[in-house]
Design brief:
mainly beta
């Protein structure tokens, strides 16, 4: 289908959360979200769906799973497969605990395919890449999230850090997909 650009956010100063409000409408059911130049306070990024009142949905109806691979490139040669699951939690999860570095040359990337329609579960699937976890590992993986709720009108997403730290940088482009 045709990709229609709906929004762009270029966050380049410390913030505790980024709210992408009102981009989900009845005009689209499928969205593509590109997130580049991700820098954090060395914490894992989470997300919550937002409802019609621009409120983050925090009920424990989120289900996630993911699979990835990490390779140590500094201080050793360890590499391993890593999986995660989160059942009945209050947020979306994208990695098994790996996070973005805080230095510009090691910025990360995430691509999300999002399905969202009123009164149906929201589904977010995609890819996550960080070139420098803990200053010594490269990580890439896939994830799948579902918000199992059929009585909400979804309107956006809220990204935040799992332990209250800051998102230092995040460039986001959101597209609606017309069929």
């Amino acid at each position: 289908g045709t990709h229609v650009k709906l929004a762009e956010v270029n966050q380049n100063s410390n913030t505790s959360a980024i709210e992408l409000q009102q981009f989900i409408t009845t005009d689209y059911k499928n969205y593509k979200i590109f997130i580049n130049n991700i820098l954090t306070d060395n914490q894992e990024i989470y997300a919550r769906a937002m409802t019609g009142t621009n409120t983050a949905y925090s009920t424990s109806n989120y289900f996630a799973s993911g699979d990835g691979y990490y390779k140590q490139y500094s201080g050793g040669s360890t590499g391993n497969q890593d999986q995660f699951s989160a059942l009945g939690t209050s947020n979306m999860r994208f990695t098994p605990g790996f996070y973005q570095d805080s230095t510009t040359e090691w910025a990360g990337r995430m691509i999300i395919d999002l399905y969202s329609e009123a009164n149906k579960p929201m589904i977010a699937q995609g890819y996550y890449w960080t070139p420098r976890y803990n200053d010594q590992y490269v990580y890439h993986g896939t994830f799948s999230n579902s918000v199992v709720e059929n009585a909400q009108t979804w309107t956006g997403l809220r990204f935040y850090m799992h332990s209250g730290g800051n998102i230092n940088n995040m460039d986001i482009q959101i597209y609606g997909i017309k069929h």
